[in-house]
From TrEMBL, chain B:
Lineage, broadest ranks: Bacteria, Pseudomonadati, Pseudomonadota, Alphaproteobacteria, Rhodobacterales
Highest taxon above the source species: Bacteria
Ranges of residues in domain Aldehyde dehydrogenase: 48-481, 533-749
Entry keyword Membrane: no
Record protein name field: Aldehyde dehydrogenase family protein
Alphabetically ordered keywords of this record: Oxidoreductase
Active site residues according to the UniProt entry: 263
Record carries keyword Aminoacyl-tRNA synthetase: no
GO terms assigned for molecular function: oxidoreductase activity, acting on the aldehyde or oxo group of donors, NAD or NADP as acceptor
Matches recorded under Gene3D superfamilies: Aldehyde Dehydrogenase, Chain A, domain 1 (3.40.605.10), Aldehyde Dehydrogenase, Chain A, domain 2 (3.40.309.10)
Alphabetized SUPFAM superfamilies for the sequence: ALDH-like
Length: 335, 782
């Protein structure tokens, strides 16, 4: 099943990169407060584990190149700026379709590599959908009053439907951090549950804004509640918080995902976002993912990077692998 | 594999560190590991072969040093020692600093050679062993610098013989050499026969650092060479290795006057409470028992998990074990490397095959390499404390597991072992974790962590895990001694019965004092105590082995004393002083009558003074918070040793007894005191003072009689934690030999005298012997 899924992913046709086209979608479950309250996260121990993942695993030569290509297929190529224009978004979509120079891909003996998705604000969704037509690359829209999630609740819910109707097949919602900080897990559950209902067939990534949750224990508990409420992915950050994706936070969220899978049988995806800009960092994340969650998650169906500048570094590393010479950024097309 | 194939499989692939430079280094030096003595190489003979456990291939030849060759090395160290000790601390600090820098400069060579020789993953030798080695030399460069100002009353021991194991060849070398040479000692070190190569690189570093010839010497070989080093003219033996060999060394050095520290085996508990961060606790086990293939003396090898979470914990643990990567230790993506030698592999295999039947054995589904010594990570569940594998050290990647119901039961299970090296406690409840940590019989406790080490934090065990600490200020005690003029102790015989005796005015019956009660001697024998004048002063009981048994039982039962507040212990010591003061004249007269002198009043006054000293110390002998490189702290706490048997000096019947009793009980120990044999009646009068001073029953027990009669029973008693001897009888050798049974701590006079009235007979030296430093690592952060 694994091979088959990967094979479709490479062809770049159809809806290959839609999350969980080959996984049963997480339907959610009733809020289980015993489970939520029992979740623990020992920060110091988590940091120690996170600090050594990069030294326990090393990828060389062809393996490094192959893993970097895989990382590209997992990138939600993102632009979330106030000055986004249709032109800017079309350029980004072009990059999503052809993230690596043809000659480099040819030298590596692979084809059909695209990014995992393109991620934009609602107003840019139609432009992106049009630009990606026929590629199978999904368009993700950030939603629900992104990034703070403090606009009127009804409008936040309505925003989801608007984006879905505009063609977004993935919705990145933001949770109300205040529900976590005040310990109102029921309110968090209800909110995410209703947002999931609004998403319909579109897949929902729940952004926890981990940098604003105060503790890793809160991250663990919020992760569980979001999954219980039916999130298809849990995602660290909007990219707008002062602290975004980190390895310790990732470890906590991955372990929550593993627990959820152990108990329910459903695989929920993970998306670290913000702050991952180096090829080497992406390999560390993928090593952590492989070791903590297993090979099933090493696929764009279950893992995404929310990143904008990561791709550029990976391109340079790939050219270095092919030519043996260190590369320059201007040798690669901008997105 | 093509890029596309890897893209589909997402395997890690090989990431080997090159062995070329290291092999070239060995070849360029003749391909033989051998002696480095007086700054020169030799002899270098191929008596044996060093091989790479990962492949079985030959790495180098190894010289098996003869006793004569060992003696040559000791002579070189002896010759170098006086001028090395005479250097200023700053001058020695410069050498240690140079060594630290050179270790860093040669870090990759050291790491690769260590991995080739030992089989440990290159990640560990590169990221853990070598950095800790450099750290140890930096830290002790500082100790050399500060010795003059901070340790003015201590001096080097002389020549130290050091024997180290194969599990951390370079790290153990640094733990031994750095404090020794910082304090002005010179050393002869024997690396383990499986792993002698990194010591060769280190010898070259010593030369590059310009270390004076003879300060650091290496002799290679196996057990016979080690035995020759133990028997040689050294002043100290420091040994890290098995408890079995530790016992042999203890017996071999008994009575030689050689100082001894032993860092031995363990079966360290790893306690997981139901409120722990379970995933982190499981990851901790990877670092506890699958670090260095489990060949770690302090490995958390005994999992004690709360029954309510045990099934889920074991399931998760097995899943984690399945993702451990085993293989070529030079590969940078390997978690588990090779077992050091086929002999060790055979031992592990046999132990699991035999002992595993008591439980359920789970081997991680790792693919074993086709060649080399490998053993898969293994978990054995369902074992009870009585199972052999719950008690015996396996020294391999094998975790045994049992369950508990309550915190009290967890502590009981954890302490149900002859060992006491390290322990881990996992709980998110600070009250629980910090309550359990001090109750564990271990020299090191990690709260929510495992296998944390630092030069600033003491490391070492209790019980049969050995004695002495390595690291920190406490580690320097093992390489220094108080500056003191040695004088031979003159034996004192009791005054003989006169031709015509004069009886006492009224018969007074001196008894033994056991468990807070006056007790007749079990044997029913007494000795008449005569004054010099020929007057019969009274009778003193002659204690036998049953009295020893009863006294030790009473002392063990008084364990509440260790938990009494320091303030309470101080109050009671003051009170003893007050009550002795009230009867000062009577005691002075007694001493004068027994000894035939007129110093009684002075001795009583000094005794009261000394009681006040330790009343003062009781709540002031502080522990320390060590600045370890961690967000958190490592607390060094002075814990009582436990039950101490003490043979009091003959020559100061009251002051001598007080000088041993007071520091011991001030620190929370319970004592069994053997009173001055020629002059026992001050001690027997003294129990009346104890009785009126609120001393809980069993805290102080007093025996009388010839020390030789019951010394063996006391020194060999397996529930006594330490023996001190300031006896006039020649007991030192026997006590040290008998102590090997449970490796109790010993502190003997070796026939040397002390001025009991002087400052040398009170204070820190006594408090140090009355305590064990327990280091509790408490990482924190939210």
């Amino acid at each position: 099943m694994q091979t088959e899924r990967e094979a479709t992913a490479q062809t770049g046709t159809g809806t290959a990169q839609l999350p969980q086209t080959t996984e049963a979608r997480n339907p959610g479950m009733a809020l289980d407060m015993d489970w939520v309250r029992a979740a623990q996260a020992n920060t110091s121990a988590i940091e120690r584990r996170a600090a050594t993942i990069g030294t326990r695993r090393s990828l060389k030569k062809e393996h490094q190149a192959a893993w970097l290509l895989k990382a590209i297929t997992m990138i939600d190529l993102t632009t979330l700026a106030g000055d986004d224009t249709p032109g800017r978004v079309r350029r980004l979509c072009a990059k999503a379709r052809q993230p690596v120079r043809e000659d480099i891909l040819a030298a590596l003996g692979v084809e059909g590599i695209t990014t995992g998705a393109v991620c934009v604000y609602h107003e840019m969704v139609p432009t992106a959908v049009a630009a990606l037509k026929g590629t199978g690359i999904p368009v993700a829209a950030v939603s629900t009053g992104f990034p703070a999630g403090l606009s009127p609740y009804k409008l936040r819910l309505a925003e989801i439907g608007e984006s879905v109707r505009a063609g977004a097949s993935e919705i990145d919602i933001v949770i109300s951090r205040r529900h976590v900080l005040t310990g109102d897990w029921q309110a968090l559950f209800d909110e995410v549950r209703e947002m999931r209902a609004e998403c319909g067939d579109a897949h929902m990534k729940a952004i926890l804004a981990t940098g604003e949750l105060g503790s890793l224990r809160n991250v663990a508990r919020a992760s569980l509640v979001a999954m219980m409420a039916g999130a298809d992915f849990i995602k660290t950050s909007t990219g707008k918080e002062s602290v975004n994706a980190t390895l310790p936070v990732s470890l906590v969220m991955m372990r929550a995902i593993r627990d959820y899978h152990e108990r329910t049988g459903y695989r929920v995806g993970y998306k670290p976002a913000g702050g991952i800009s180096k090829a080497k960092d992406s390999l560390i994340y993928l090593s952590l993912l492989k070791d903590e969650l297993g090979d099933a998650w090493l696929s764009p169906h279950l893992f995404r990077f929310g990143a904008s500048s990561l791709l550029g570094d990976i391109e340079r590393q790939l050219e270095h692998h092919v030519t043996g010479h260190y590369s320059a950024s201007y040798r690669h097309a901008m997105g | 594999m093509t890029v596309k194939e890897i893209f589909d499989s997402m395997d890690y692939g090989p990431a080997p560190e090159s062995a070329a430079e290291a092999m070239a280094w060995i070849a360029a030096r003749g391909g033989i590991a051998g002696n480095y003595v007086g700054g020169k190489w030799g002899p270098l003979r191929e008596d044996m072969v060093l091989s790479n456990p990962a492949t079985g291939e030959r790495l180098a030849g190894l010289t098996r040093s003869t006793p004569d060759e060992v003696n040559v090395a000791v002579a070189a160290a002896r010759k170098a020692q006086p001028s090395w000790a005479k250097l200023t601390g700053h001058q020695r600090a410069r050498y240690l600093y140079a060594i630290a820098r050179l270790v860093q400069k040669h870090s990759r060579l050291l790491a690769v050679i260590e991995t080739l020789d030992n089989g440990k993953p290159i990640r560990e030798s590169r990221d853990i062993d070598v950095p800790l080695v450099a750290r140890h030399f930096y830290y002790h460069a500082g100790m050399a610098q500060l010795m003059g100002s901070e340790l003015p009353d201590r001096e080097a021991l002389g020549v130290c013989g050091q024997i180290i194991p194969w599990n951390f060849p370079l790290l153990m070398l640094s733990w031994k050499i750095a404090p020794a040479i910082a304090m002005g000692n010179t050393v002869v070190l024997k690396p383990a026969e499986y792993t002698s190569l990194s010591a060769m690189v280190f010898a070259e570093i010593c030369s590059e650092a310009g270390l004076p010839p003879g300060v650091v010497n290496f002799v290679t070989g196996e057990g016979s060479t080690g035995a020759a080093l133990v028997a040689s003219e050294v002043d100290k033996i420091a040994f890290t290795g098995s408890t079995e060999v530790g016992r042999i060394i203890r017996r071999a050095t008994a009575g030689s006057g050689k100082s001894l520290t032993l860092e031995l085996g363990g079966k360290s508990p790893y306690i997981v409470f139901d409120d722990a961060d379970i995933d982190s606790a499981i990851e901790g086990l990877v670092d506890a028992i699958w670090f260095n293939q489990g060949q770690v003396c302090c490995a958390g090898s005994r999992l004690i998990v709360q029954e309510s979470i045990a099934d889920r914990f074991h399931t998760k643990l097995k899943a984690r074990m399945a993702t451990l990567r085993m293989g070529d230790p030079l590969d940078k993506s390997i978690d588990i490397g090779a077992i050091v030698d086929p002999v060790q592999l055979e031992t592990i295999t046999r132990m699991v095959a035999e002992g595993g039947k008591d439980g359920e054995v789970y081997h991680a589904p790792c693919k074993l390499p086709d060649q080399g010594s490998y053993y898969p990570p293994t978990l054995i569940t369902g074992l009870d404390p009585a199972a052999r594998l719950m008690q015996e050290e396996i020294f391999g990647p094998v975790l045994v597991s049992t369950t508990f119901r309550t915190p009290a039961e967890a502590v009981e299970l954890a302490n149900n072992t002859r060992y006491g090296l390290a322990a881990s406690v996992w709980s998110e409840n600070i009250n629980l974790a910090l309550d359990v940590a001090p109750k564990l019989a271990a020299g090191v406790v990690w709260v929510n962590g495992t296998n944390m080490f630092d030069a600033a934090a003491g490391f070492g065990g209790v019980r049969e895990s050995g004695f002495g600490r390595e690291g920190g200020w406490e580690g320097l005690l093992a390489y220094t001694r108080p500056v003191r003029k040695a004088r031979a102790l003159k034996p004192i015989a009791p005054f003989p019965a006169p031709a015509s005796a004069t009886g006492p005015d009224l018969d007074r019956t001196a008894k033994l004092f056991i468990g807070g009660k006056q007790a007749r001697p079990d044997g029913g024998y007494s000795r008449a105590v005569w004054a010099k004048s020929g007057k019969l002063l009274g009778h003193a009981g002659i204690a036998n082995r049953k009295d020893v048994r009863n006294a030790v039982e009473a002392a063990r039962a008084a364990s509440g004393w260790a938990r009494a507040t320091a303030h309470l212990r101080a109050q009671i010591l003051f009170y003893i002083g007050e009550n002795l003061s009230a009867r000062a004249d009577e005691f002075a007269a007694r001493i004068d009558a027994m000894m035939g002198g007129r110093h009684g009043a002075r001795e009583v006054a000094a005794s009261i003074d000394r009681l006040f000293t330790y009343a003062a110390w009781a709540d002031k002998y502080d522990g320390a918070a060590k600045p370890v490189p961690l967000r958190g702290t490592a607390l060094a706490m002075n814990e009582p040793v436990g039950v101490i048997g003490a043979f009091c000096p003959d020559e100061a019947p009251l002051l001598g007894l007080v000088s041993l009793m007071a520091p011991a009980i001030a620190m929370g120990n319970r004592v069994v005191l053997a009173a001055s044999h020629p002059f026992p009646l001050a001690a027997t009068d003294f129990y009346q003072v104890l009785e009126t001073s609120d001393v809980p029953a069993g805290v102080v027990n007093i025996l009388t009689g010839p020390h030789d009669d019951f010394a063996k029973a006391l020194a060999g008693h397996l529930d006594v934690d330490a023996i001190w001897s300031q006896s006039g009888a020649d007991l030192s050798a026997m006590i040290e030999a008998e102590s090997a049974g449970n490796l109790k701590r010993t502190w003997v006079n070796n026939g040397l005298a002390r001025d009991w009235f002087g400052a040398e007979s009170e204070g820190r030296e006594f408090l140090q012997h009355a305590t064990e430093v327990k280091t509790t690592w408490i990482p924190f952060g939210e």
